[in-house]
Structures are given as structure tokens and as C-alpha cells.
Amino acid sequence: MTGRLTLALAALLLLSVLPPAHGQSLFEKLVMPGEVVESHAKYEKTCGSCHEAFSKKEQRRLCLQCHKEIATDISGKAGFHGKSPGIATAECKTCHTDHKGRKADIVQFDPETFNHVFTDFELKGSHKTALCTDCHAKGTKFRNAGTTCFACHKADDAHKGALGQNCASCHNEVAWKKPKSFDHSKTRFPLIGAHERVQCAVCHVGERYKDLPHACVACHNIQDVHRGRYGPKCETCHASIKWTKVVFDHAKATKFPLLGAHASVKCEGCHKGDLYQDKLATACVACHKANDPHNGQLGTKCETCHNATSWRQKVAFDHDVTNFPLIGLHASVPCEECHRTAAYRDASKICSDCHKDTFHQGKLGSACNRCHNPNGWALWRFDHDRQTQFPLTGSHTGLKCHACHASAAIAPIAAPKECIGCHKSDDAHRGQFGPRCETCHTTTSFRQGAVPR
Prior knowledge:
The chain is mainly α. It has 16 helices and no strands. The mean pLDDT is 81.
């Protein structure tokens, strides 16, 4: 009976102290453990904002209903409340106990022990030694601190925003002023060869990164030893591995392979003009006309005799394939000695046309080869006994040819065979004994008397 009465009195008391439609009841004032913090002061007279009667579990829901950012972090597993272990199931009052006065610290944040791993921005590299105030500005919530490099380092941006805000693409947290290896291969200009060692500022002058020209001449114009004569396509001949090494393949790219001595000739040796010419003459004489020792006498087809290996030292023409093989001393005679005109095919094959007859004075005709040969002009080899009908005997053997062949008007074959033909002026008989001198005389002792028969 006493227990029932107690409950009834309690219920009656509770009903007597119920709050009006808006405000705090007398009972709530009596049971409130203390003042709430300054930030919650506006809710102090409405306990229902944070508490639900007879249900402690609803307190967490009501906290998160008011602190929506925290609720979002927990559900999205982001930020400190979303990444810290145990918070997803813990009651808010476990860490944040209120009703301890207006000045109470219900956050309980200690910078010295706070573990930044349980945030959206783990401290790495140089960030580990940075002060909290370097990133978290005074009067700004910690959660609102920027997480991008540009948010903190905008004032330190040496590029003045020219490279955008993605600083991490080139820099890292270990050493900000020492850029990491930017992957230039993902751009339209991969860095190859010597370009790999070039400092960024050498090409990106004035922090210019957009619409930068890719042509070699855009950067190397001042180093162009050709002074623009060969146009702007430097890559046609040069490579980025070693600029001074020419990689142009003349054999594949043109119809004129560089052979022999041509391989060491500088480009401007043949390419005199402002540009490489598709119709540049390929004939030897086009370049070597001034060096032609024949002065054009042997025509323009220099390659008939010469080659690119040794222009001056080795003549490759095989004269044996002509109608006049070079035999004996003829093999060492300079070409122009016989080929006096540019039309070298009209060179004469007659000895006397090249060898002026100063000895016989033309008395023996032009068929010099009957007596002489190319091994030596003085080594004549005419056999009068076999090659004529007048063998030389006696005193005839010591006579000079033109003693009998006295005139060019007399053909060698038609020279007289009778004694009187040559000895008429020596006829002591003055013709009294007729023309047949051999009746009495011989070639051995013509002047000594008759020979008895």
C-alpha cells in the first residue's frame, strides 16, 4: 500500500511540474546536473533538443541530428570521426560530456597527442614537423583546413599559377623545392636523350607551359650553324641524343648515296643554296668542274674513269675494252695526251697523229707500227729479209732506211729493187754496160770491181 502511494504521489508531482508548450519545467531544472557549454547555451531550456525522456540511446541520434557534418563523416568514414576506431558505435557523451559549465572544454583536443593519421590528410615528409597553425588558421575549424598543396602554398608558387593547382604532379612532401621526376612522356613532347638532363626553366622560360612550340628551331635557333639555310626541320638530320651527330641517311632519303670520299664531305660542300634541293645535280662535273684537269676534253661522264674512293689517284677506266688497248709505254701516258678534244671517241689510232716523225721526216709513210712497237720507240723490229722481196745483204745491212726510201712520195713497198734505181749517180760506166749492175757487182764489194762469172 505504501509503495502504491509513493508512485501516485510521484506521478502527481510530475504532472504538476510539466513544462509549458515552450520552456523548461521545474523538475528539469531540479535534476539538471549543471550549466551546458557556451555553444549549447541556447538549447539549455529545451532539454528535449539533446535528451529524450527515459531513452539514453536516443541521445547519440539527437547529437548527430544537430551536428550533421559529424554524422556525414561517420557514415562516409571520412575525417577524424569517420576514421577513428570505435567512434562509429560509441556514444558522443563518452568524449564530449556537457553540463560542466559555460567555460568547460568538452572537445578535449590535445595537439601534442593528436594522431593525424585518423584524418583525411596524413602528415608525411616535411609536414610532420610543420606547426598546426601553419595549416589551421585561427578562428577556422580544423576540418575546414585545405588538403591540397595549392591551398597552403599558393603564396610560394614560383610558377604564379601557370601550371595549375595540381602541385603534386611535380613536387612531393619530402623536399618542396626539389621537384620529383615529372613524367614528361605523358605530354606531347617526351624528353629523350639530352633533353632528359635539361632544367625545366631552360625550355619553359618565364614559366610558360601552355602552347609551347615543339620544333627544334624554336629553342635551338641561336645554335643553328647553318644560319637557317637548311630550313626549320632540324630533326631530319639531327637527334636529341647528341646534337652534333648527324643521323641523316643520305642513301635512303636521296638518290645519291654518299660513298668513298663523299661520306666525309660537309653538307654545305654540295648544298650551296638556302635549302636542300630535290633537283640538286648528281653528275660529277656539277661539283668537280673546276677541278677537272682535263678541262672538259674527256667529256662530262667522269665516273667512266674515276670513282668516289680516290678521285685523283685511281683511274678505273679499262682501255682494253676499246679498239686501242694500252700496251707498253702507252699504259702510263696521261689520257689527254691522246684525247685532245672533249669527244674522246674520235682519238686517232695512227701513230704519226700523236708521234710527229722527226727522224724519218715522213719518208717512210705513216705505218710506223711496221717497224716500231709501244714497248719502246727506239726498239724497232722490222725484218727486211722476211717482210719484203729485197733482203738486205752486204753493205745494204748498214744503211739507214731513208737511204733507199728517200722520199715520202715513194711508198715503202714500191722502193726500187734494181741497183741502178739507187746507184745511177754512182755508175762509173755511165750506162755503157746497161742497168743490170749485179751482173758484175755484189752488195759486198760494189766499188772494187767486177765479179767474174
